[in-house]
């Protein structure tokens, strides 16, 4: 297995001149057709937020870089990310071969011939516009995926899997929070080294997610020895497939894909892929026409050596923001950090334009930088410290109302005109925004309930907290009842003293030093325990007292098959 290279060598001015001359020759290459439309009704395309920063300066967290470094050296030589050692030859006859022929010739999985396959064939055949949009969007990525698949000696049916997963939409996100063209869940993405932080989400990165998906599929095939079972595990989870096999073995039943009992989504998963395979193999039989795809890369990889604004990079490449985002959808913020994003992907001609324009560029490359918050602060105080409005700070960093920013958080702020230093690797790779509710501190108290079968809701009303909070603090359901004499944990504001009442059910039990120590025990889930925040629906996950939760970045809602990995 190989990983797409990430060249980081700086390019001298003389080398750049020679490179530009060679790229002028390459500019005549015919590129694959541009993508169009959206994948399906369950997906929404989103592009990186391009914000206009204020002019106020702030000192960034950075490493020294020579202010005399020319803009031309902010990027390296474009290469084919799959074959960086091979010179690009646009006159290669193999590049004129129809890529669909190459895909068909590489088919290697056993065919399914079931009623479900017929159902999905008919579904696609009755939607030629949808098939056309998927195919045109996939034309940007299919050559790269086929190359990777064949380098690993895997069947080329796998290159068609993004048709099923995301309709080849690299910005897709499912309701289960699976993201990207290959629909990785957050935890599985981390297992396969797909970094997810404030500045980028590698689950949407075209190169990184393809590498991870094929790594995962290889592992699953090695585990089950069968591609259909491997695909079922990719959709449903390897543990689920193993348990289904074990059940059938115990019952003396078959253990192949068609014999297992599985959810409807997984039951339809391989038949959907088989239907797409049949359409690619014989489009005329389904009265469909696939767009012509030539057998050469749609994009080149351009190494990034300096931080640069997303908007500027797209403009220098002669591309719209949307087209730039289609090839570089992993960006979460309006700046590309060189230490965290080793390359950008650009079509042949646009790579040439980018380097020419970069040589002529005057002025800063990046107007944004990262700032590590030195202490827990309200957004208004943080905004004053960095010289921008609170509204701008909240907008670009997606800070919800009634939250404070915890110490150690990373915020996107304007870059000082006096500083040309770039954000260092440790900040770019670990950037996170940590939030806590802007409420008075709470103390943990234990009370004893006296009435038999007293409900969570009744106890919650007594202490003016929500039933959901009380249930969470005590690890019970919101509709549960407490047994008589049960000890119940309640978090109360320090400003509101807890008093002893005549009713045993309302008595706060204190037992000397143990109770004092218990009252001082830090809460574990401040975000969900604060009475002031009980009924609020916060758009961002909130930090705990000692273990802040990293604020996520919302992207598009997306296609179906995403409940599993």
UniProtKB/TrEMBL annotation:
Gene3D superfamilies in UniProt: 1.10.530.10, LysM domain
Residues in LysM domain copies: 446-490
GO terms classed as biological process: peptidoglycan metabolic process
Pfam families: LysM, SLT
SUPFAM superfamilies found in the cross-reference section: Lysozyme-like
Region (Disordered): 30-83, 523-565
CC annotations in GO: membrane
Molecular function (Gene Ontology), one example: peptidoglycan lytic transglycosylase activity
Designated name of the protein: Transglycosylase SLT domain-containing protein
Lineage, uppermost ranks: Bacteria, Pseudomonadati, Pseudomonadota, Betaproteobacteria, Burkholderiales
């Amino acid at each position: 297995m190989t990983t797409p290279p990430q060249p980081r060598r700086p390019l001298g001015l003389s080398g750049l001149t020679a490179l530009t001359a060679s790229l002028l020759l390459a500019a005549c290459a015919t590129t694959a057709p541009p993508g169009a439309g959206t994948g399906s009704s369950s997906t929404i395309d989103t592009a990186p937020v391009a914000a206009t920063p204020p002019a106020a300066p702030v000192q960034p967290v950075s490493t020294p870089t020579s202010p005399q470094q020319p803009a031309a050296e902010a990027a390296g030589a474009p290469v084919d990310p799959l074959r960086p050692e091979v010179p690009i030859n646009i006159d290669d006859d193999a590049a004129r071969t129809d890529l669909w022929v190459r895909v068909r010739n590489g088919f290697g999985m056993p065919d399914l011939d079931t009623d479900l396959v017929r159902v999905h064939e008919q579904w696609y055949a009755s939607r030629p516009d949808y098939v056309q949009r998927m195919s045109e969007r996939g034309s940007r990525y299919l050559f790269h995926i086929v190359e990777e698949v064949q380098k690993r000696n895997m069947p080329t049916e796998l290159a068609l899997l993004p048709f099923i997963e995301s309709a080849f939409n690299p910005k897709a996100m499912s309701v289960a929070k699976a993201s990207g063209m290959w629909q990785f869940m957050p935890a599985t993405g981390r297992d396969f080294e797909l970094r997810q932080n404030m500045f980028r989400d590698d689950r949407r990165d075209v190169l990184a997610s393809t590498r991870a998906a094929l790594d995962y599929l290889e592992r699953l095939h090695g585990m089950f020895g069968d591609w259909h079972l491997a695909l079922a595990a990719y959709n449903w989870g390897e543990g689920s497939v193993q348990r289904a096999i074990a059940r059938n073995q115990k019952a003396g039943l078959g253990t192949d894909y068609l014999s297992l009992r599985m959810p409807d989504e997984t039951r339809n998963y391989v038949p959907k892929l088989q239907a797409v395979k049949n359409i690619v193999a014989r489009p005329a039989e389904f009265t469909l026409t696939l767009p012509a795809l030539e057998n050469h890369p749609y994009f080149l990889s351009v190494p990034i050596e300096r931080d640069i604004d997303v908007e500027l990079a797209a403009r220098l490449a002669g591309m719209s923001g949307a087209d730039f985002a289609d090839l570089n959808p992993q960006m979460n913020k309006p700046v590309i950090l060189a230490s965290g994003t080793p390359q950008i992907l650009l079509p042949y001609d646009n790579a040439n334009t980018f380097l020419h324009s970069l040589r002529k560029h005057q002025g800063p490359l990046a107007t944004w930088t990262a700032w590590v918050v030195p202490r827990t602060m309200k957004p208004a105080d943080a905004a004053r410290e960095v010289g921008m409005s609170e509204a701008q700070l909240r907008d670009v960093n997606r800070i919800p109302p009634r939250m404070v920013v915890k110490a150690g958080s990373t915020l996107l702020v304007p870059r000082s005109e006096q500083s040309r230093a770039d954000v260092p690797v440790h900040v770019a790779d670990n950037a996170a925004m940590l939030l806590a509710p802007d409420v008075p501190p709470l103390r943990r108290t234990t009370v004893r309930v006296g009435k038999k079968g007293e409900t969570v809701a009744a106890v919650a009303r007594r202490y003016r907290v929500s039933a959901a909070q009380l249930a969470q603090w005590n690890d019970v359901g919101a509709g549960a009842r407490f047994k008589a004499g049960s000890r119940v944990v309640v978090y109360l504001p320090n400003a509101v003293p807890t008093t002893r009442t005549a009713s045993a059910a309302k008595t706060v039990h204190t037992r000397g030093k143990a109770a004092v120590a218990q009252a001082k025990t830090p809460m574990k889930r401040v975000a969900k325990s604060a009475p002031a925040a009980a009924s609020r629906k916060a758009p961002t996950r909130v930090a705990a007292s000692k273990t802040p939760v990293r604020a996520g970045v919302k992207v598009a809602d997306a296609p179906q098959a995403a409940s599993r990995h």
